[in-house]
Write a structure and sequence with these properties.
- By secondary structure, this protein is an alpha/beta fold.
- Helix content is 45%, strand content 21%.
- It is built from ten helices and ten strands.
- The chain has helices at residues 10-34, 51-60, 73-86, 98-101, 122-130, 157-166, 179-189, 211-230, 234-237, 239-252, and strands at 41-45, 65-70, 91-95, 107-113, 133-145, 151-153, 196-200, 203-204, 256-258, 261-268.
- The chain has a seven-stranded mixed beta sheet, sandwiched between helices.
- Strand 4, helix 5 and strand 5 (133-145) form a beta-alpha-beta unit.
- The protein is globular.
- The chain starts with 9 loop residues before the first helix and ends with a strand.
- The mean pLDDT is 90.
- Bound molecules: S-adenosylmethionine.
């Protein structure tokens, strides 16, 4: 596992909140399509700050149970606090590698979002995750694909410049930016039946669309890594005004912003 490339600053917390506003409904629709619902016992691999586990807690309801695991013990404190504030009693979080921390093998579903893109061996992770399921249980992973990076239509000058800074060249070190399109082969290599897919990209414009600020905060969190890869200097990017400039530029061109596609892949364990 590479160190988590986005860091854990105050800005990163703000970024996670915006991220959940934008992606929460998309992840929920994906899990519903995958068949996750009332009364199920679900394992969430790589819970981070807990957004997915809390969303699943709502889907499974009080008769269900969610077990969230993350190797980063610190971020789980945030996840636990959020679960307590939301009043959910059916969610628990455990620190460690899920392959050693979770011994139960009768989960109805195992889920993960933005986990496979960060691990060196996604096939092994999916195989180990499926081993925690009962036969017939659901495997559901939700991952980005940066084949289409954040883009405005029509293209605007600030957005075009941003793409140059933000998108690392293909084949470099760091997270797998094309994980979405690799999910099918990953499931097959893990010994699972070919998954079904649900694809959705966030898109919007105008004064209430949170995507401009979200992209700016993501650029802020990613910059230390991007600087190493592309040599871009923080002074070139002017992060403090980036969100506002993206918004103004889009408004001037009556443009919409589309964020990278989310690929949701799900299947059922057959044996
Ligand atoms: C980008 S975060 C995703 C957070 C969350 N799933 C979400 O969608 O907001 C990925 C997390 O996966 C965790 N992780 C990766 N491999 C893991 C493993 N084998 N066991 C437990 N956690 C793991 C990392 O520590 C990291 O916090």
């Amino acid at each position: 596992m590479e160190p988590y490339i986005l860091g854990h600053s105050e800005h990163e917390t703000r970024r996670l909140i915006l991220q959940h506003q934008i992606y929460g409904p998309i992840t929920r629709r994906f899990f519903e399509a995958a068949g996750i619902g009332r009364g199920m016992k679900v394992l969430d691999v790589g819970s981070g700050a807990g957004d997915v586990a809390l969303l699943v807690a709502d889907l499974v309801g009080p008769a269900g149970r969610v077990v969230g695991v993350d190797m980063n013990a610190g971020i789980l404190d945030t996840a636990r606090e959020r679960a307590a504030v939301a009043g959910w009693r059916n969610v628990e979080f455990h620190a460690g590698d899920f392959t050693t921390v979770v011994t139960e093998r009768d989960f109805d579903a195992v889920v993960g979002r933005w986990v496979l893109m960060h691990v060196p061996d996604p096939v092994t992770l999916v195989r180990n995750a499926a081993a925690r399921l009962r036969v017939g249980g659901i495997v559901a992973f939700h991952e980005n694909d940066f084949t289409y990076p954040p883009t405005t239509f029509p293209p605007t000058p600030v957005d075009t410049e941003l793409a140059r800074w933000l998108v690392p060249p293909p084949g470099g070190r760091g997270p797998e930016m094309r994980m979405g399109t690799k999910l099918y082969a990953t499931f097959l290599d893990a010994g699972l039946p070919g998954p079904q897919f649900r694809l959705e990209a966030p898109a919007g414009g105008g004064p209430d669309w949170p995507g401009f600020e979200y992209v700016a905060e993501t650029a802020r969190s990613l910059l230390p890594m991007i600087e190493k890869i592309t040599g871009v200097k923080p002074t070139e990017v002017d992060l403090d005004t980036l969100g506002a400039r993206l918004r103004e530029d889009a408004a001037k061109h009556r443009a919409i912003q589309m964020l990278p596609l989310m690929f949701g892949a799900w299947t059922r364990k057959t044996g």
